[in-house]
């Protein structure tokens, strides 16, 4: 009878493992090579030349390096070094992704700020009788990066046979924001149906300028709350570092006792939750 129960239990475990194994493998691939592929894709959008192997090497160094340093720093205490080193290795593997996201968002914001001047140039050029492609050439010559890079790629794609509409669609996929989508949609629709592009560009410039005014005002109002929240979140780790250096034995129970580890884990979870709550409160869509 025990053998039958064992076979049934083993068969159930096998079926569950077989059913969820592919999902688990896909999740593992996304957490490992997915980060690499994402960074390579975002670097391509920012005109940063790199290769998957190079990005993978950087990710390995960013995770293995902190692990080794943390392990050596805690010697002869092996367990704290292994635990904290593993956490730092996981963080080191994931940190490049938000850094790349920050760089991409900074590029998008800079492009947004340049759209007012760039569209004014295009509107004036088209009022003087130039075509869309010719006005793009003027923007490429007179505007700095990233607008010059992006519009130059639009022109390059058009020269090799890509239609202007498709080239602008590619631009909207590289620079993901509402203003670029509005600009691309207006150009593509008016080129198909006909209309005054110069006046449309003037209208888009006015909308973007007013939206930026409102956005800057909201940022100035929410900045105080953000810095107050970051100050509060920094108090627990700063106190821990202070006691660790001023009274070296004062923090030992936190690392040598299961209750201490439980407290540290709870503090870390609350700190992370507090960070996301503060970010959620101060984020206002314009």
Molecular structure report:
By secondary structure, the chain is mainly alpha-helical. The protein folds into 3 domains: 30-94, no CATH class; 106-195, no CATH class; 216-282. It contains 11 helices and no strands. α4 crosses α5 and α4 (96-127) packs antiparallel against α9. The chain starts with a helix and ends with a helix.
Quick description:
This protein is mainly alpha-helical and 286 residues long. It contains eleven helices and no strands.
List keywords for this structure.
286 residues, mainly alpha, 3 domains, 0% strand, elongated
SSE arrangement:
Blueprint: H1 2-45, H2 52-74, H3 78-94, H4 96-127, H5 132-142, H6 147-159, H7 164-174, H8 178-193, H9 197-246, H10 252-256, H11 258-282
The secondary structure category is mainly alpha
> How many strands, what sense, and barrel or not for the largest sheet?
none
User: Which shape, going by the Cα principal axes?
Assistant: elongated
- Count of runs of 4 or more consecutive helical residues: 11
What's the N-to-C terminus distance? 68 Å
Instruction: Work out the count of structural domains.
Output: 3
- DSSP strand tally: 0
What Rg do the Cα atoms give? 27 Å
Taking all residues together, what is the mean pLDDT?
Answer: 81
Low-confidence stretches: none
H/E element sequence: HHHHHHHHHHH
Helix content: over 70%
Strand content: under 5%
């Amino acid at each position: 009878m025990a053998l039958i129960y064992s076979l049934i239990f083993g068969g159930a475990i096998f079926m569950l493992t077989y059913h969820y194994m592919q999902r688990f493998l896909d999740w593992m691939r996304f957490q490992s090579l997915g980060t690499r592929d994402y960074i390579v894709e975002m670097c391509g959008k920012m005109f940063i030349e790199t290769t998957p192997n190079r990005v993978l090497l950087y990710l390995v160094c960013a995770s293995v390096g902190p692990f080794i340093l943390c392990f050596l720093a805690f010697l002869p205490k092996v367990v704290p070094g292994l635990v904290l080193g593993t956490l730092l290795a996981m963080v080191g593997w994931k940190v490049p992704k938000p850094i790349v996201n920050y760089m991409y968002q900074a590029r998008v914001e800079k492009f947004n700020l340049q759209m007012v001047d760039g569209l004014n140039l295009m509107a004036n050029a088209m009022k003087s009788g130039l075509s869309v492609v010719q006005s793009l050439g003027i923007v490429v010559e007179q505007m700095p990066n990233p607008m010059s890079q992006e519009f130059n790629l639009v022109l390059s794609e058009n020269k090799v046979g890509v239609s202007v509409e498709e080239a602008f669609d590619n631009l909207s996929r590289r620079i993901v924001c509402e203003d670029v989508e509005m600009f691309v949609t207006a150009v593509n629709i008016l080129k198909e149906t006909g209309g005054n592009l110069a006046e449309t560009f003037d209208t888009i410039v006015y909308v973007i300028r007013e939206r930026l005014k409102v956005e800057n005002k909201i940022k100035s109002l929410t900045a105080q709350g953000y810095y107050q929240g970051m100050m509060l979140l920094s108090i627990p780790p700063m106190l821990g570092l202070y006691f660790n250096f001023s009274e070296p034995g004062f923090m030992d129970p936190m690392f040598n006792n299961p209750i201490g580890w439980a407290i540290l884990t709870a503090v870390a979870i609350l700190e992370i939750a507090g960070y996301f709550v503060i970010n959620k409160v101060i984020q206002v869509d314009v």
